[in-house]
Every structure is written in structure tokens, then in C-alpha cells.
Amino acid sequence: MTEKQQQILFSAQKLFALEGVVAVSTARIAKEAGVSEALIFRHFGNKQQLVDAVVKAGLSAKSSIINGILHSPDAVTLVRAVLSIAARVENNRDVFLSWVAQLRASRDSGVEISADSFMHERLVWAVTEIGHGRPEAVASVIEAVLDQVVELTFTGAADNAKNLCFGLQELLINE
Predict the structure, then answer these.
(1) Can you give the residue range of the structural domain that contains 121?
(2) Is 45 helix (H, G, I), strand (E, B) or coil?
(3) Which residues are CB-neighbours of 26 under 8 A, at least 6 positions away?
(4) Confidence band (pLDDT; 50, 70, 90) for 81?
(5) Looking at residue 115, what is its pLDDT?
(6) Number of domains in the chain
(7) Are 29 and 43 in contact (CB under 8 A)?
(8) What is the DSSP string of 91-154?
């Protein structure tokens, strides 16, 4: 990816994360990136293809953030580590920008995202080890809550995000 493409992608991520896809025009992205709108179309074809690039970059960023903690040999430690990711958002907004942009872009444009199979597998294992019934469903809830708390924290609702994480951890681990 060229430097200009990276500028365009970063500007799109920033604007999508803060305002959503529908509220942001390609002209606005071009202005934020310091390029012409025509250059966006030259590099990405159209707005939907730019949205697709934002989603792809966000999924890659999410994997990079999460995969290191998924190797924990202890189920309780794994669940706590996953739920503590949201606490890192406030001090690392740039790291989480791609993830939040991906969440908003996927939702706003109706792009269907399949779950990260490795993450899901590890969460199913952890929930099974902890002894909860319906581990597939519980793992899916953890994944959905994780996305929600990352977005909430990024957009300034950190207290709500912390309460969600704390409540889910209490339900899963401390019953």
C-alpha cells in the first residue's frame, strides 16, 4: 500500500470510527487525508471498496490485539484477559482506531463479518473449562460484549463498558 493509500485509509478509519460511514463523504475523507477525492476513487474504486478496506484492516488489527492473550493455558485467566482488553482502549486509542472503525463500518454498511474462529474456539474451550452450559452461545456473547465495550470506551462511555465487563466476568467466573 502506498503512502497516499495509507493516508486515505487512516483518514477513513478515523472519520468512520468517530461518525460512522453514512455521515462521512469521500470528499470529507479526501480533505482529512490531504488528497483529491479523485485519488480515493483511483486507489479504492468507490466508497464501498474503501469501506471494505477499512473492515479488512480493522479485523487484522483486532486479531493482532487479541491473539496474544488467547494462548493462555488457564481458562479463568483467558476470560479475564479478554474482558480486560477494553481497559486498554482509553490509553491506546490509536491502536484501537482500526477495530472501532471496522465495527462501525460493518454495521453501517451491512457488511456481514464472520467470527474470528481461533478466538471463538478458545473462548468455547475456556467457558467449557469453567463449567458453563452452552459454551458456544456464551462464547458468542463474550465476543459481542467485547466489541461493544471496545466501541463504548472509544466513544467516551468507559464507565458503561467497565460495568459490562465486570458484570460478565462476575457471571462467568465468580457466579
Answers:
(1) 3-173
(2) coil
(3) 37, 40, 41, 47, 50
(4) very high
(5) 66
(6) 1
(7) no
(8) T-HHHHHHHHHHHHHHHHHT------HHHHHHHHHHHHHHT-S-HHHHHHHHHHHHHHHHHHHH
